[in-house]
């Protein structure tokens, strides 16, 4: 099928284009490399054992090292689970007010109206029921491009049944459309809620005769051994500045009694890694947790940072991040105390000894202030960063699944908190006291166990729910309201003239085609596809048809859809139709002259087709939505013209244009449809308006601007693949509970919230984080424990309904100095970042910057005033745990979202990206990692793949050097003016910088330098779980300026240098002191 190549299109023919260039050049041909690198998770695979047939297997995200299926034959693993992926409908139980009434399908459509598509003759088979009086209804056309769409005989050779080994569907049939559409009950995680299928009966699990209530899966392996060989060793961090005694960054220096004995801080690094461990110190005497630098007051004048200038401060002596430390084992609790976690970005292996892993939940302060006054005095934020499905380290023990049988998990009868290691059993085990509300409950009879001499239940160590910070409970019928729905993947592709001509359509089709084999195999995986320009085109993929029918929905104002059963079809039934259709779409539309896009209407139409089941809607969009429902105007240009209107107009552009898409998004969320948008564009698309849809539905926006058909298809493919294969759950509802005295103030992230206590997540994956801010409603007792519990009710990709319960218990303190010792820099900063991003669209930018700076100053001031013993006014004294806070605050004020010189869409994307950003990625976003590339082959980095990072200051950039900078999303490769031609030859295969193509594609050449650079990039991709969009930046052109804009330690138009900023901070603190 050879067809003319549309301008700009990379490949109409799949055979000429065997797939996106592999991101992992070291293993050419392995297009799964990204996935292979991502921790070898067991994804989209059935659990090894049927529920009910024996000990419960680890959960699907159970870290059992298992490589990804290799490309084509894909799902060689027969489905043994109940279904590969099914999800129940919205939990009903207590119907929420305002639930939409059941919506029935539109009656039918005019059929067979030929439109001027390059298609074949109309089908003689009316695909829809009739809807006679509906002019403008969808019309059907067989899909047959001028190049001829291959016809399928009714007896097509697609295997009819489920694949070998597939089990019959274990669920009831889906309810009629509209049933079970009531909202999750307000008590969702508070009261029984239903969803999903019934789990195995109680008798099927082995359980102790004494305790019939709680069958428990015992861990299959003991604790993971201390990591050894496979751990990447990183080079030691840059030597800590002499003026900053205490632990280098990478390990919060903790000292003092609340943390137990010295050895209890962090378990020693295994195998004698030297690591940056500092001997912990006790007591407050010499204030070991304090960092100091001398900043003479006289040097506040501008220019202080200039090397050789009047500054007497050595820029090399100020706090800077080091490289990540050697891997350590982190025990969450020791000696009945919480251990403060290692930095979020460091390499650590967690042993859950009662508190949850910090990957799942992290508090901004690892001790809780007893009073609101103490908290406000500290100037710090109290918040939790929650990432309930975060990926764990491969060496960590899998989360254990506990099945309490029909009774369901033991819970407090008053606050509905779930049983956890901090509930106290009394009265010979007959009663237990809830650690959240303090209520005393009777222990259920079948859960009773005697207490030992230490006052603990004798079975504590055998029951994960009593000794682990994170467990998963099997949800009973009470947590389900309708049978799990099949997994639905719907692809919506822009085929407007622009999308076709830039190659975006072809890239999308190619990426989808390649990930089809990654979708869960089996009879319960459904797919659908539609294309859109100024109209919407569905495709009937039923095998019985001779050829796929194109079904056109021309009315983009009042949208309706073809019959769901025609356009959403079992993958096994339509795979061949689908593959050929994907091959043909770019050529079918190659003559298209339609410049409009009915994006909003297309999303709405796809939603109508999906609403009875829910599922994932993946939209590939190239141009601004210009017609139909939710049409937008090119207001960026208008905004530019109105620049005189000032800041007020400017930030209007960061708000959605109107409420249409938000209303639609809430409806999508109600019906459990999660939307991801892949923006492959070369122009303004009004990101602020469209991103509301993914944000409300638990989805994500991907941005490829300006789209390049040469360099972007590999990222598009890798992003789509990771989107589908990463650990994830559906139909989720989440709630955080706190001990008395503290309550949740606000949730921030990508979700839909209909009641105050719970958030609804049509989908949630391992990358998504939710910030939960906390407030006091009472005093806490000094020395007591305050607990937080996140309960996530969700459906696994195998159709199992689970409750992941994550509990963190921290001690309360009346001492300000304890709060500063226990401050968690990474989550403090993530919290500040998210609050700033959240406020940008509604507040004047200078105000947002000022708030960020003030919150940094307030914390440092509180420390200086109340905790530091040094009285010299000439010293800026920083708490060890927060010594990098000023640097990151400065970087934040210079970041894309807080600058006005960039595109409005870039800022909107940034705001949206931050909204669900995980803690480990928060700092790199504003303070990226930079490494030198030109000397990778000569420097000995002690075996580490990545050299130590370089400070983000232009004085560290040499004209002879090549540097790579990454922030978890983008990678910038900077080439200086006078780079040795031998180095250029090795890295780029050209002798001079001028000859390097601007549309750069990373390649590996046969030399050590190139190999090491590729290894470094791949290591970063692995660490970030992100395929970076690599741009080439050359000194002397705009791309070079882009690179230099990341040098946040320099003085720039958007702010002072790092040294100047420290001086400013110091002055402000002094002003406050006086
Ligand atoms: Zn309670």
TrEMBL record:
Record flagged with keyword Protein transport: yes
Pfam families to which the protein is assigned, alphabetical: Gelsolin, Sec23_BS, Sec23_helical, Sec23_trunk, zf-Sec23_Sec24
Residues in Sec23/Sec24 beta-sandwich domain copies: 729-813
Residues of the Sec23/Sec24 helical domain: 824-923
Compositional bias segments (type: Low complexity): 144-160, 167-187, 296-311
Superkingdom of source: Eukaryota
Record field: transmembrane: none
Limits of the Sec23/Sec24 trunk domain: 484-724
Domain Gelsolin-like: 944-1012
Extent of Pro residues compositional bias: 1-10, 45-62
Bias kind Polar residues: ranges: 25-43, 322-338
Disordered: annotated segments: 1-187, 296-349
Residues in Zinc finger Sec23/Sec24-type domain copies: 409-447
Sorted UniProt keywords: Protein transport, Transport
Keyword set includes Protein transport: yes
Family, similarity comment: Belongs to the SEC23/SEC24 family. SEC24 subfamily.
PANTHER family: SEC24-RELATED PROTEIN (PTHR13803), SECRETORY 24CD, ISOFORM C (PTHR13803:SF4)
Name of the protein: Protein transport protein Sec24-like At4g32640
């Amino acid at each position: 099928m050879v067809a003319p190549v549309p301008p700009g299109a990379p490949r109409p023919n799949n055979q000429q284009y065997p797939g996106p260039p592999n991101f992992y050049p070291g293993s050419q041909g392995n297009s799964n490399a990204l996935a292979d690198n991502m921790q070898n998770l067991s994804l989209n695979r059935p659990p090894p054992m049927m529920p009910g047939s024996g000990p419960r297997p680890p959960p699907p995200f159970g870290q059992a090292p298992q490589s990804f299926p290799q490309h084509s034959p894909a799902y060689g693993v027969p489905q043994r689970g109940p279904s590969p992926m099914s999800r129940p409908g919205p939990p009903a139980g207590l119907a929420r007010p305002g639930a939409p009434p059941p919506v029935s399908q539109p009656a039918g459509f005019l059929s067979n109206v030929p439109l001027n598509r390059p298609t074949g003759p109309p089908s003689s088979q009316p695909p829809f029921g009739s809807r006679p009086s509906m002019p403008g209804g969808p019309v059907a056309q067989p899909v047959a491009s001028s190049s001829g769409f291959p016809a399928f005989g009714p007896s097509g050779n697609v295997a009819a049944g489920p694949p070998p080994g597939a089990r019959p569907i274990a669920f009831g049939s889906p309810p009629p459309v509209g049933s079970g559409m009531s909202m999750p009950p307000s008590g969702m995680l508070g009261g029984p809620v239903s969803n999903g299928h019934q789990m195995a009966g109680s008798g099927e699990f082995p359980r102790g005769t004494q305790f019939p209530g709680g069958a428990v899966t015992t861990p299959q392996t003991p604790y993971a051994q201390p990591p050894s060989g496979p751990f990447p060793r990183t080079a030691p961090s840059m030597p800590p500045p002499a003026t900053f005694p205490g632990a280098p960054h990478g390990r919060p220096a903790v000292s003092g009694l609340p943390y137990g004995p010295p050895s209890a801080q962090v378990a020693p690094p295994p195998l004698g890694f030297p690591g940056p461990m500092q001997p912990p110190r006790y007591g407050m005497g010499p204030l070991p947790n304090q960092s100091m630098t001398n900043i003479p007051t006289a040097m506040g004048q501008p220019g202080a940072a200039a090397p050789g200038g009047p500054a007497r401060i050595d820029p090399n002596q100020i706090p800077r991040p080091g490289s990540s430390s050697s891997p350590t084992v982190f025990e969450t609790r020791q000696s009945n105390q919480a251990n403060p976690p290692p930095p979020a970005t460091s390499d650590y292996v967690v042993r859950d000894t009662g508190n949850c892993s910090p990957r799942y939940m992290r508090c901004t302060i690892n001790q809780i202030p007893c009073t609101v006054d103490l908290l406000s005095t500290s100037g710090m934020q109290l918040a939790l960063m929650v990432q309930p499905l975060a990926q764990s380290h491969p060496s960590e023990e899998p989360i254990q699944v506990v099945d309490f049988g029909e009774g369901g998990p033991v819970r407090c009868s008053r606050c509905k908190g779930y049983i956890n290691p901090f509930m106290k059993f009394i009265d010979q085990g007959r009663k237990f006291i809830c650690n959240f509300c303090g209520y005393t409950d009777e222990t259920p009879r079948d859960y009773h166990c005697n207490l030992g001499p230490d006052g603990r239940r004798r079975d504590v160590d055998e029951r994960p729910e009593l000794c682990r910070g994170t467990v998963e409970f099997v949800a009973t019928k009470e947590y389900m309201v309708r049978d799990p729905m099949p997994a639905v993947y719907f692809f919506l592709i822009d085929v407007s003239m622009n999308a076709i001509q830039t190659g975006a359509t072809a890239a999308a089709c190619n990426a989808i085609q390649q990930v089809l084999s990654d979708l869960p195999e089996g009879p319960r995986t459904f797919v659908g596809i539609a294309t859109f320009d100024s109209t919407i085109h569905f495709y009937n993929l039923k095998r019985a048809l001779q050829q796929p029918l194109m079904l056109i929905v021309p009315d983009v104002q009042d949208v309706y859809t073809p019959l769901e059963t025609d356009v959403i079809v079992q993958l096994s039934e339509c795979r061949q139709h689908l593959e050929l259709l994907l091959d043909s779409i770019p050529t079918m539309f190659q003559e298209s002259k339609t410049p409009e896009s009915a994006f909003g209407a297309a999303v709405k139409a796809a939603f109508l087709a999906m609403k009875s089941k829910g599922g994932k809607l993946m939209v590939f969009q190239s141009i601004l939505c210009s017609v139909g429902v939710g049409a937008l105007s090119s207001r960026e240009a208008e905004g530019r013209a109105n620049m005189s209107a000032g800041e007020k107009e400017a930030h209007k552009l960061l708000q959605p244009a109107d409420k249409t898409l938000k209303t639609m998004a809430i409806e999508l969320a109600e019906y459990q449809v999660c939307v991801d948008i892949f923006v492959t564009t070369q122009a303004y698309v009004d990101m602020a308006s469209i991103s509301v849809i993914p944000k409300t539905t638990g989805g994500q926006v991907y941005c490829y601007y300006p789209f390049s058909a040469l360099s972007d298809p590999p990222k598009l493919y890798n992003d789509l693949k990771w989107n589908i294969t990463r650990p994830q759950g559906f139909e989720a509802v989440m709630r955080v509970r706190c001990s008395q005295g503290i309550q949740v103030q606000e949730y921030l992230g990508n979700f839909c919230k209909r009641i105050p206590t719970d958030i609804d997540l049509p989908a949630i994956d391992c990358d998504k984080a939710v910030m939960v801010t906390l407030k006091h409603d009472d005093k806490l007792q000094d020395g007591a424990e305050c607990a937080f519990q996140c309960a996530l009710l969700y459906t696994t990709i195998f159709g199992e309904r689970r409750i992941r319960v994550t509990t963190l218990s921290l001690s309360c303190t009346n001492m300000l100095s304890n709060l500063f010792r226990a401050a968690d820099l990474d989550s403090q900063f993530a919290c500040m970042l998210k609050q700033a991003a959240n406020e940008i669209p509604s507040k004047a930018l200078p105000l947002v910057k000022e708030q960020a700076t003030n919150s940094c100053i307030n914390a440092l001031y509180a420390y200086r005033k109340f905790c530091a013993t040094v009285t010299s006014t000439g010293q800026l004294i920083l708490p060890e745990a927060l010594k990098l806070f000023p640097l990151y605050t400065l970087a934040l004020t210079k970041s894309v979202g807080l600058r006005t010189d960039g595109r409005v869409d870039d800022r909107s994307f940034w705001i949206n990206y931050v909204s669900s950003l995980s803690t480990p990625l928060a700092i790199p976003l504003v303070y990226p990692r930079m490494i030198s590339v030109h000397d990778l082959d000569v420097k000995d980095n002690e075996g580490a793949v990545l050299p130590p990072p370089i400070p983000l200051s232009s004085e560290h950039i040499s004209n002879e050097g090549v540097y790579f900078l990454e922030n978890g999303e983008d990678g910038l490769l900077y080439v200086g003016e006078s780079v040795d031609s031998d180095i250029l030859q090795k890295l780029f295969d050209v002798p001079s910088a001028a000859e390097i193509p601007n549309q750069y594609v990373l390649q590996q050449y046969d030399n050590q330098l190139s190999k090491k650079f590729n290894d470094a990039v791949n290591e970063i991709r692995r660490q970030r779980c992100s395929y970076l969009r690599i741009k080439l930046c050359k000194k002397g052109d705009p791309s070079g300026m882009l690179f230099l804009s990341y040098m946040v330690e320099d003085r720039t138009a958007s702010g002072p240098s790092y040294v100047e900023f420290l001086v400013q901070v110091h002055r402000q603190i002094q002003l406050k002191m006086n």
